[in-house]
Every structure is written in structure tokens, then in C-alpha cells.
């Protein structure tokens, strides 16, 4: 650290002064308060989700003294927030620290977070590892809310369906959310119930490859190279005005392999074919070591090969609570008109 932790936290909060005023005015109480990689304490993040202060450390555990200083700082700067510390310094970023019984109860308590006037369910701890709402994706959800009114949306790798609920909130004609995890979709269903939505989103429990291949008309075989695939829902071919693609860095299933570093086109091509003529895709790449210009060139080549050339590309940067001194944030988001 270049200075003691309380000084870093204070400087970060001061830098966000105008931003937090704007966010609060538009119905947002969930944001990153400290982005350690860019603000002097690599691997440390502090996020607010409504009444929850979620502290996470990656790469190394947060020393007890630092945690005590952090808690003392925010108890004065932002009083009344319940602090939960998740040590994710072990391989695969799994939470490894035990909490006292009262803290564990507070960490598992269901809470409500607000973003852009939309309510989302949040917990400091749950059966998974990642928070139920990725705050750096706010810029994409904001853009979806600008784009989705009266249009159909396909949200692939939907996780807890934040994008789909945001689209439904502004009056999308349809919001279809696809994920292989039923527990994540159940959180998405709860998110939908929390809000007064003009339409009911659809939640599709299915491998993304199987869903996209059916929607785009390619079809999904039940047997591949003599091997019977796991059951999957039957879906009719359908094109969407807006497709949001936010795959994990790497995942393997019987239906295909997701590898955003080596083979992003494997997921991009079927998503592209699900988009209607004149439609829009918002594609995300969360791999820090993937440079954005070569990635976009890869998407453009893939689109040309598929006969669906990209007419326009626009970068969507994360918002100011995720500073990036070099202008190259780990999360790349690009809007494509096809």
C-alpha cells in the first residue's frame, strides 16, 4: 500500500462524491466503494449493496488489523451498514473464512439492493461464491434499459437475471433468461417478484449452447458422436431484437466449451444467429488478459463468416466506481448493431 488503508479508503470515497450523489438520485444504493487494484490495495474490494457492506479480498487474506481499520472507517463514514468479510484468497476464489454465529446469520440474511430503480435480492453469503449482482455490469444494465422498451431480449448466461429484470422493468416485449443453474434462476425469479414489472420474464433452465442452437434454428441433437446428451428443454426457433452475452471465463459441458480467451466465437456465433436482422448484441468479456481490440476483431471476423456483418460497434465502459487508470478495464463490454 502507498499509504495506510484508512487514507486509501477516504481518498476513494472522496473521488466518488459526485458519482454517489447521482446514483442515489436515480434510485441506486449499490456500488463499489473501493476498487483496490486501481486504488492502492490490490485484491481488496469494498461494495455496498443497500444496507450491506461486502468486503472481499483476493490473492491474500486481509490482516485482522486492516479489517478492523476498514470497519472503523466505514462505521463513521457510512454508519448503519452491516459488514461481511469474505476471504477469497484461496484457489478458485472460494470463500475460506469462518464467521462467528451472529455474523454468519447476518451474512445469510436476505437483503434488498437497488439499482436504477430496480430491486435485487442480495446476501453477503449464500451457497455460491460470487455476489448475486455484479456491480461492474451496471453500465450494461443501464444501456439495456435504454434499448429494451418494446423489444424482445435474450439474456444468455443470465446468472441471477439482473439484465432480464431490468429489461422487463422498462417494458421489453419479452425477456428470456437462460442459465444452467436452477439456483441462480430462482434468485432471478425472486428479483422479478420484487419489482412491479409490466411483463413476466421467462426463465429457461438449459445449457446456453443447447438453448441458442435451438433459438437460432440450428437445432440440438440428443445424441452426438454416439453419446446421449443430458436432457434439455425443447425450444422453438426464435429471433430476438436484443441479445446479451456474458459468458464465464471458462466452462465445460457436454454441449460445448466456453473459453473467452481462446474461442469466444464458439459462444458468439450462435448468439449472433439468435439476433434479428437489424438487431443488437451486447457482448461481455471478463478476462483481464484479453485485449479489447483483438477481441473485437475476432468478433468482426466471426460475424463476417456467419454472413451477419457488424454495422456498428460501441464500447460500454464500466462506470466511475470501477476506475481504470490505463483505460483498459478487465471487463470489456461492446454493443454491436448487426
Structure overview:
It is a single chain. The protein is globular, with a radius of gyration of 20 Å. The chain has eleven helices and 17 strands. It starts with a helix and ends with a strand. The chain has a seven-stranded mixed β-sheet, with helices on both faces. The longest helix is centred in the N-terminal third of the chain and has 14 residues, at 64-77. It is an alpha/beta fold. Helix 1 runs parallel beside helix 4 (64-77) and helix 6 (138-147) packs parallel to helix 7 (162-169).
Shape, principal axes of CA atoms? globular
Tally of helical segments? 11
Number of beta-strand segments: 17
Q: How many distinct domains?
A: 2
CATH class identity of the largest domain: Alpha Beta
* Estimated share of beta-strand residues: 25-35%
- CATH-defined fold name of the largest domain: Rossmann fold
Main sheet makeup:
7 strands, mixed
Strand order of the largest sheet: 9-8-7-12-15-17-16
Q: Catalogue the unreliable spans.
A: none
Q: Measure the end-to-end span.
A: 46 Å
The topology string of helices and strands comes to HHEHEEHEHEEHEHEHEHEEEEEHEHEE
Helix content: 25-40%
The CATH homologous superfamily of the largest domain corresponds to Vaccinia Virus protein VP39
Task: Describe the secondary-structure layout.
Layout: H1 5-15, H2 17-25, E1 30-35, H3 36-39, E2 44-49, E3 52-58, H4 64-77, E4 82-88, H5 101-107, E5 111-115, E6 118-122, H6 138-147, E7 152-156, H7 162-169, E8 174-179, H8 182-194, E9 202-205, H9 208-215, E10 223-224, E11 227-228, E12 240-245, E13 250-253, E14 256-259, H10 265-274, E15 275-285, H11 292-305, E16 312-315, E17 332-337
Parallel strand pairs: 3-4, 7-8, 7-12, 8-9, 12-15
Antiparallel strand pairs: 1-2, 2-3, 5-6, 10-11, 13-14, 15-17, 16-17
Helix pairs in contact: 1-4, 6-7, 9-10, 10-11
